[in-house]
């Protein structure tokens, strides 16, 4: 079964493995398969579920709501996000304005079939809205009982500091950040993680398997497998392109004996690696088939010894992305419409 960790400086516990439905529900797989996979996650001990209103243009939230219908609400941790455009994508259908936040939380709750979410997250930083407006709106969402805690996604260290101070001034808790993080993509380690540790903010990391590259199924010098994420624009193909260089794929193949020595599969090794970071509360995983989760959850509770961690670093060598400056390039400078 899955272990639990506290989320930030709060009393909220989340499962070390969070089920996320970014590229699956409402687009990649049909609803019956999606619902079966959510039920498999529950059977495996996963109680934390992450989605966003923008996923499949709100359809992913609807599918997750159907899948969790009938479950004891108090036994679940349900997260969603706001920022990206939804609906007809009018001028106010995006960003972190008070208008968009309130319209978005009301829509998300209806689609999810719940009175509240445990964590409401700013999906990106909004350079076009005063931060005071955003956090006043978030504070009001919390006071109305529509969300219990506030989080963000892909914010820089400086943005986290400013947001945390504002949240505190409004009497609410900013307890999490949701960045990309894996053994190949370590850009948060330089600035974001130290700032988060100081502020009492945890990471809920997405793409712990580097878009599937750390599974080892992408081979250097070979075409990408048919039906893989790299061939499907709806499944985030553009996110994987930077990892599909031959030098990266060759380095990943050198991880196979490391995983074997540790008694783990390649996906388990990748997920266990991110969970060695004490600032990581949970690793986000997705699945298109129920059986994929049976092995994934075995990464929870795994302790990688110093020799294994060193072997991973040696195998990956200089293909690791670790420049902290990359954290400043994620949030768009203008709203996406």
TrEMBL record:
TM regions (residue ranges): none
Gene name tied to this protein: gpr_2
Residue span(s) of domain NADP-dependent oxidoreductase: 16-314
Listed name of the protein: L-glyceraldehyde 3-phosphate reductase
GO cellular component, one term: cytosol
Family: Belongs to the shaker potassium channel beta subunit family.
GO molecular function: oxidoreductase activity
Pfam families: Aldo_ket_red (PF00248)
EC identifiers of the protein: 1.1.1.-
Keyword terms of this UniProt record: NADP, Oxidoreductase
């Amino acid at each position: 079964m899955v272990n639990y960790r506290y989320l930030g400086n709060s009393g909220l516990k989340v499962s070390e493995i969070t089920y996320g439905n970014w590229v699956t529900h409402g687009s990649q797989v049909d609803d019956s398969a999606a619902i079966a996979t959510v039920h498999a996650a529950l059977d495996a001990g996963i109680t934390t579920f992450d989605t966003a209103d923008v996923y499949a243009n709100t359809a992913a939230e609807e599918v997750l709501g159907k899948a969790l219908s009938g479950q004891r609400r108090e036994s679940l941790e349900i997260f969603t996000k706001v920022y990206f455009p939804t609906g007809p994508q009018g001028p106010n259908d995006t960003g972190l304005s008070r208008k968009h936040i309130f319209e978005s939380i009301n829509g998300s709750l209806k689609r999810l079939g719940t009175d509240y979410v445990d964590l409401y997250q700013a999906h990106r930083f909004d350079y076009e809205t005063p931060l005071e407006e955003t956090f006043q709106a978030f504070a009001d969402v919390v006071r109305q009982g529509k969300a219990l805690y506030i989080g963000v996604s892909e914010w820089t260290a400086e943005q986290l500091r400013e947001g945390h101070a504002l949240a505190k001034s409004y009497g609410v808790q900013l307890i999490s950040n949701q960045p990309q993080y894996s053994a190949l993509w370590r850009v948060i380690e330089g600035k974001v993680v130290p700032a988060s540790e100081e502020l009492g903010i945890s990471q809920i990391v997405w793409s712990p398997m580097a878009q599937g590259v750390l599974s080892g199924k992408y081979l250097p010098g070979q075409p990408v497998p048919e039906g893989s994420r790299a061939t499907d624009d709806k499944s985030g193909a553009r996110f994987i392109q930077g990892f599909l260089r031959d030098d990266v794929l060759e380095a990943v193949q050198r991880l196979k004996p490391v995983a074997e020595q540790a008694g783990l599969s390649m996906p388990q090794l990748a997920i266990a690696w991110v969970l060695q970071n004490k600032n990581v509360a949970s690793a986000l995983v997705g699945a298109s088939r129920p059986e994929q989760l049976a092995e994934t959850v075995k990464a929870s509770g795994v302790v990688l010894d110093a020799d294994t961690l060193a072997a991973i670093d040696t195998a990956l060598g200089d293909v690791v992305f670790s420049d902290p400056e990359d954290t400043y390039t994620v949030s768009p400078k203008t709203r996406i419409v």
